């Protein structure tokens, strides 16, 4: 989690910082094989140098990016969890609970789907 320390320090709102730290800590503990890193000024996790999931903070929400394939695969579950989404990310409003089981499914899907991927992003 040290790799994210500087990123966390730049989050002004203490509640947003705590929520972001909670999610990053959960990913780190649940998926210890994933590599945490900062790229494009955002925290993300990789597996064998391929992107698995990324996060970003805004005033309104914590954005989660499992790539378009992850959004497409889980769009119904994203809506059922009460989140809205675009083609590339879902938004967890700060006043909404985090659906960790959904995050787990997305991460597992990307790890399996990209097991043989040799590029950072899907082609």
What does this structure look like?
The protein is α+β, with helices and mostly antiparallel strands. The protein has a single domain (about 1-115), classed as Aspartate Aminotransferase, domain 1. It has helices at about 5-10, 15-30, 65-80, 100-115, and strands at about 35-40, 40-45, 50-55, 60-65, 85, 90-95. The protein has a six-stranded antiparallel β-sheet. Strand 5 (about 85) and strand 6 form a beta hairpin. The longest helix is centred in the first third of the chain and has 17 residues, at about 15-30. It is globular. The relative contact order is 0.17.
Please tag this protein with its features.
single chain; 123 residues; alpha+beta; Aspartate Aminotransferase, domain 1; 24% strand; YdhG-like; Iron chaperone
| Gyration radius over CA | 14 Å
- Principal-axis shape equals globular
Query: Which stretches are poorly predicted, pLDDT < 50 over at least 5 residues?
Result: none
CATH topology: Aspartate Aminotransferase, domain 1
Helix/strand-derived class?
alpha+beta
Proportion of beta-strand residues? 15-25%
Number of domains: 1
Helix-strand string: HHEEEEHEEH
Number of strands: 6
State the end-to-end distance.
29 Å
What is the CATH domain class?
Alpha Beta
Helix share bin? 40-55%
Query: Architecture, CATH level 2?
Result: Alpha-Beta Complex
Order of strands in the sheet with most strands: 1-2-3-4-6-5
Largest sheet: 6 strands, antiparallel
Protein name: Iron chaperone
Organism: Cohnella herbarum
Pfam families: DUF1801
InterPro entries: YdhG-like
């Amino acid at each position: 989690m040290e790799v994210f320390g500087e990123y966390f320090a730049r989050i002004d709102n203490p509640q947003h910082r705590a929520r972001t730290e909670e999610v990053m800590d959960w990913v780190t503990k649940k998926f210890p094989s994933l590599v945490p890193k900062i790229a494009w000024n955002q925290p993300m996790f990789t597996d064998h140098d391929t992107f698995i999931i990324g996060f970003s903070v805004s005033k309104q929400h914590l954005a989660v990016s499992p790539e378009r394939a992850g959004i497409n695969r889980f769009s119904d579950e994203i809506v059922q969890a009460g989140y809205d989404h675009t083609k590339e990310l879902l938004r967890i409003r700060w006043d909404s609970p985090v659906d960790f089981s959904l995050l787990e499914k997305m991460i597992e899907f990307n790890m399996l789907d990209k097991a043989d991927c040799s590029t950072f992003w899907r082609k």
